[in-house]
Amino acid sequence: MDYKYMPEPYKVKMVEPLRILEKEERLEAIKKAGYNTFLLNSRDVYIDLLTDSGTNAMSDRQWAGIMMGDEAYAGSENFYHLQETVQEIMGLKYVVPTHQGRGAENILSQILVKPGTYVPGNMYFTTTRAHQEMNGGTFVDVVIDDAHISDKEDVAFKGNIDLQKYENLINEVGAENIPYICVGVTVNLAGGQPVSMKNLREVYELSQKNGIRVMFDCTRYVENAYFIKTKEEGYQDKTIAEIVKEMFSYADGATMSGKKDGIVNIGGFLAMNEEDLYHKACALVVVYEGMPSYGGMSGRDMEAFAIGLKEALDFNYIKHRVEQVEYLGNKLIEAGIPIVRPIGGHAVFLDAKKFLPHIPQNEYPAQVLAAEIYIESGVRTMERGNVSAGRNKEGKEYFPKLELVRLTLPRRVYSYAHLDFVAQAIINTYNRRDEIKGLKFSYEAPVLRFFTGRFERL
């Protein structure tokens, strides 16, 4: 018997009621929010696809772990459980907890990034680049060119580092001026695209040869491992845990937001193999986060985090997660909606340039589209284009090749019926695309403007 899709590999124990506003109310809500979906009140949102960061549904075992919280100010038992779990799964020696991923980025950047240094990476991420630039560094994109082409679908690993670009940078600026290479697994702003094991191995070998650290942004490393298992030759019979262990053997450390593949609502860490780096990180975590044994998290949060890291390695869990994203993406492809291909691991990304070709990039088509989807349906999505890219050191806008709207699926939250509704909302918006107009800033924050910026219609 053929099934349209396999149902969720879990059953519901608790529910949260949803409500949808009338269209006039949605118009008023988005106008009040300055046409920025980040500034909407959650009570005014029907289906929330803004992010998968901290919006996950925890398991019964995680909730049981919450009751095991050791809230000691120093030496919490839950920290040791989290530390042992990271060491077991990733093989990294030292763990410094933080309140979330950007706390780890801040500490790493303050220690290693100095004025005049360069940090290569496979496409920028907003907060990561901001921390690097605030410490005087320069981010350099060394992802393969295909990653910037939204409809290039015959490339299985669009998150790969271009080794020639990386080597050219080393020769140009000198290895001594590159404190580390930041490898995102997966690459968020390319559309949730994975990096192959072969590429990770080659990047590590080139880095070791030149004395450069390899630091993963491992926020969605389990999704990356799933793609390696299903797309890369020689890994079909490997478990997710085995693939993860090999992935991290090609890294010197990592930053992580536990709010994604940790399946929790808060938490993160900076992990590394280098003892001197660890001691420096411990000194800074006290200043910005908390004691090295809690780093901005409560004991109960660390316990849920440790349990979630283990649950995320279950193949049935990650298969369902990625297949939900594929289901939504394929429904949009069938309807002729332009999206990033191949479909990534955590979200479907709409190509706003092709969706709204009459709106120039300086009128922020992705921001426009996210607002219009909300007006159409009450579904909240996120801009990932010119607004997110921000401005360079001279104050000029970046105008990235990819102008995207991200439809991000929280883990273990929505059903396929919710996804059918989302797909129809996108189709309805597409059918009236010619009547949609651009936006201009009415308020622009100096850093990470996409979080708090406000707009008005042209």
UniProtKB/TrEMBL annotation:
Cofactors that this protein relies on: pyridoxal 5'-phosphate
UniProtKB keywords: Lyase, Pyridoxal phosphate
Pfam families the UniProt entry points to: Beta_elim_lyase
PROSITE patterns per UniProt: BETA_ELIM_LYASE
Residue list for modification N6-(pyridoxal phosphate)lysine: 260
Catalysed reactions listed for this entry: L-tyrosine + H2O = phenol + pyruvate + NH4(+)
GO BP of this protein: tyrosine metabolic process
Domain Aromatic amino acid beta-eliminating lyase/threonine aldolase intervals: 48-424
EC number: 4.1.99.2
SUPFAM superfamilies to which the protein is assigned, alphabetical: PLP-dependent transferases (SSF53383)
Spans through the membrane: none
One MF term in the entry's GO annotations: tyrosine phenol-lyase activity
Listed PANTHER family: BETA-ELIMINATING LYASE-LIKE PROTEIN-RELATED, TRYPTOPHANASE
Family of the protein in this entry: Belongs to the beta-eliminating lyase family.
Quaternary structure annotation from Swiss-Prot or TrEMBL: Homotetramer.
Protein name, entry field: Tyrosine phenol-lyase
Native species: Alkalicella caledoniensis
Upper taxonomic lineage: Bacteria, Bacillati, Bacillota, Clostridia, Eubacteriales
Annotated gene: tpl
